[in-house]
Design a protein that fits this description.
41% helix, two-stranded antiparallel sheet, 13 helices, 9 strands, alpha+beta, 373 residues, single chain
Length: 373
């Protein structure tokens, strides 16, 4: 029998278990992440009442809480926005040192798998509520777009993807029609487009501040030396995805994007790679094809249309891409098979931004169109 004892140390409540907990369901906390992502609109009981999961949040692959930007309705009806942390038991909160870590001050819900659910604390802050979940009590979310392919034809679905992809296309182009510095900043942002934003900004500002009369190769060396000293957070990213490996290539593009677009014909990945082999003065650690597709789709195609006023949309839409797991899963749930192109993925990103991520399924145009069919 497990006995929960509490002792107050430095104003922190620190539960201890007198015996090791045995977990009968899942051996790793990380195995629960995909399950937690499906708990939208579900309710869980705690001592103070029911907690409703309005939005389970976005998975955090770096240091800090497991999920960010979650939206939770408390038993008193108040809506809390913040982070969610998942553990096997209460004791993990303290053994992992979260009670001393200010990065966990914005946690609005603590989720455990086993043991008694009691509030946890960070410093002398208010108690953070804890709920307990188990495999038997979990219900995966169900959305109106499940098996959408049974009632919405592939042709109609692709038409909608073009509508949303066109919006993304114009959004991507908007970065490149505001002068050279804005263009350069956008190119270099792909050092790490989602994470380490402050370090990316520092690197870009350092590059912009270098005397433009400095030789190109020396500039790249200076920026690389500066950036490699920064404390980049990588989480579980692959080594070749490290910003340091991406930086030299993106610096070269930022310095030469007009020449690149002027000399590559046709504008496609093989020709771009040939250009790099011919014009780079020193060997680079080149990221994989997935990153090249990101460069083509997010930078070169929209930038080319801005500069030369010649449509690149269809090439962009049909560009190959390394699918993001989130959107591949979404397509699978809707029942659509076939190749995911860059444009389809961009369309799904925009669809998710406008409807899925903020629970507007009831007014999603794909669902409304299906109901009219």
């Amino acid at each position: 029998m497990q006995i929960l004892a509490k002792k107050r140390i430095m104003n922190y409540i620190q539960p201890e278990f007198t015996s090791k907990i045995q977990f009968d369901y899942i051996s790793e906390e990380s195995d629960y992440y995909s399950i937690w992502e499906k708990q939208r609109d579900n309710q869980f009981w705690s001592n103070s009442g029911f907690y409703k999961i309005i939005n389970p949040g976005i998975r955090n692959h770096y240091s800090g809480p497991d999920f960010l930007q979650a939206v939770i309705q408390y038993p008193n009806g108040s809506i809390k926005r913040g982070a969610v942390e998942i553990h096997h038991s209460i004791s993990d909160w303290y053994s992992h040192g979260h009670y001393l870590d200010k990065h966990y001050e914005n946690v609005v819900l603590h989720v455990i798998i086993s043991g008694k659910a009691v509030p946890v604390f960070v410093g002398q802050g208010p108690g953070i509520p804890t709920i307990k979940i188990g495999i038997g009590g979990l219900v995966t979310d169900s959305r109106p777009c499940e098996n959408l392919s049974e009632s919405l034809s592939t042709e109609d679905f692709l038409n909608w993807m073009h509508i949303f992809a066109t919006q993304r296309w114009h959004y991507l182009q908007s970065y490149f029609n505001q002068g050279n510095e804005r263009t350069v900043r956008r190119i270099l942002a792909f050092i790490d487009i989602k994470n380490n934003p402050k370090l990316v900004q520092k690197t870009i500002d350092y590059y912009i501040g270098i005397n433009p009369e400095t030789p190109e190769q020396l500039i790249r060396k200076m920026v690389f030396t500066f950036a490699r000293k920064l404390p980049w957070k990588m989480g579980k990213k692959r080594p070749l995805s490290h910003p340091i490996y991406r930086l030299p290539l993106l610096l070269f593009i930022a310095q030469n994007y007009k020449n690149i677009l002027n000399q590559i014909s046709p504008l496609d990945l093989p020709q771009f790679q040939k250009y790099l082999l011919k014009n780079l003065y020193s060997p680079l650690t080149i990221p994989g094809d997935g990153f090249f597709y990101e460069i083509m789709g997010n930078i070169l195609y929209p930038l080319s249309e801005i500069i030369y006023e010649k449509s690149q949309y269809l090439k962009w839409f049909n560009l190959s891409v390394q699918p993001y797991g989130k959107y591949k899963s979404h397509l699978d749930k809707m029942g659509y098979e076939g190749k995911i192109t860059f444009g389809i993925q961009q369309g799904l990103i925009e669809l998710n931004k406008q409807y899925c991520s903020i629970d507007l399924c009831r007014i999603c145009p794909l669902i409304k169109f299906e109901n009219r069919s």
